What does this fold into?
Amino acid sequence: MDVIVVGANVGGSVTAGDLAAIGANVILLERDFKRKKPCGGAIPPKAISEFGIPDRVIERKTTRAVMIGPSGSETGMDVRGTRAREDDYICMVTRENLDRVMREKAQDAGADLREATFVSHTEDASGKVHVTMRYRGGREETLVADALVGADGAGSAVAKSCGRPAIKHASAIQERLYLPDDAMKYYETTAELYLGNDVSPDFYGWVFPKSDHVAVGTGCRPEHANRSYAFLEGVKARAGDKLKGAKRILLEGHPLPMQRYKKLVYGNTLLVGDAGGMVAHTSGEGIYFAMAAGRLAAQTIHAHFGDAKFKLERYEKSWQKRYGTMFDFLEVLEKLSYRGDKNREFFVDMCSTKEVQELTFDSYLFKEMAKVTPAHHARMAISGVKAAINNWTQPRTPLSSGPPQITAKEALALTRVAVSDGVAVDESAFAEAS
Ligand SMILES: Cc1cc2nc3c(=O)[nH]c(=O)nc-3n(C[C@H](O)[C@H](O)[C@H](O)COP(=O)(O)OP(=O)(O)OC[C@H]3O[C@@H](n4cnc5c(N)ncnc54)[C@H](O)[C@@H]3O)c2cc1C
It folds into this structure.
């Protein structure tokens, strides 16, 4: 069985590695080996154990998450589910390390990794896929395979080549800030999530710790993308003195899929990860889901080419069955929690409820919809009523009504400064979404 996998990051590398391990001939294409995927790099420990990621990739184990509302209200949460486990923490990684390790694992399993760009493909009457790729220097080659996997991220060229209409993308932007040791102390085991119109009118802003720096970022819908840099400044303004002495080492941005597309199989082509829109609303989490989809795609391809009665469409159905409810729930939660300051304050208050924390972390850390008992429902309802009364009787004033005033011109100037500092800015993909 010959398979071509496009995109050698988390989704593609797992697909390629798993297929190669079961004896398939796999070519894994990556358009640029040097590229760093802009990403917050927060992953659940389940990803580490399930996909054999070596511990050395983990830069920080975050055991505390702090939600900060528009008024500055705070809820600190210990990272643990309904029962304490040894790996109750969020793993913080940098993508250049994680992606390199995942690529190496795919190669060790036997995948043929090539630096080349997928251009287009066709499928002939016998079901063979003809894939045209372009190497650095411009040489083009067309290879024939039994199946093609598009794990080429947001704005997937493989999805386009399949004829899928463009899906909606949010814009996410991030700055990596080196922090002196004394400032880093606070973030050693703590991640922060900020809510408010000053940090994002649509989602949240974050400060995620890495070994010697923090990643400060935010995301917003395409209609607000031209103010992304201003929202990023908003997050930094909120973090204030905690970022004292910070020095920018990288400014990066990238689109983030905001729309699930239930069709993931086109003939003998399957879409995996961001290419399939597999990013959870509310959290923006996509790394685990890309890897899980890669594994599922590999298993489905293997089963199909062993027995044609096992249809490739089973991939879509299994994905839906496993994660559909979770994604639906998170979509609703996003609408309820992030729109408008009242909802955001309510959400921050609700996060102080033990049951909400435990169920959230059960779902995040172990990727299963947590079992909600009648007792949970009752206690969460009581907390909800309390939080609503609190918000109604003591309305809180947001610290700021919008992001720091930065015009598009200033935003551009900021980017240019960053570039002239010798800092890489991946704006090309980010611009696609704006
Ligand atoms: C700013 C930001 C912060 C985020 N933070 C988090 C977080 O903290 N936790 C989390 O879980 N998720 C986060 N995400 C989402 C996460 O980054 C993605 O969901 C995840 O990377 C998807 O993996 P993937 O393998 O599907 O795609 P990608 O990681 O995007 O990889 C696609 C690969 O395909 C390659 N490629 C593209 N086109 C071609 C082509 N034509 N030919 C050959 N190769 C090609 C690209 O170079 C790339 O290497 C964040 C995203 C952004 C933008």
Summary: The mean pLDDT is 89.
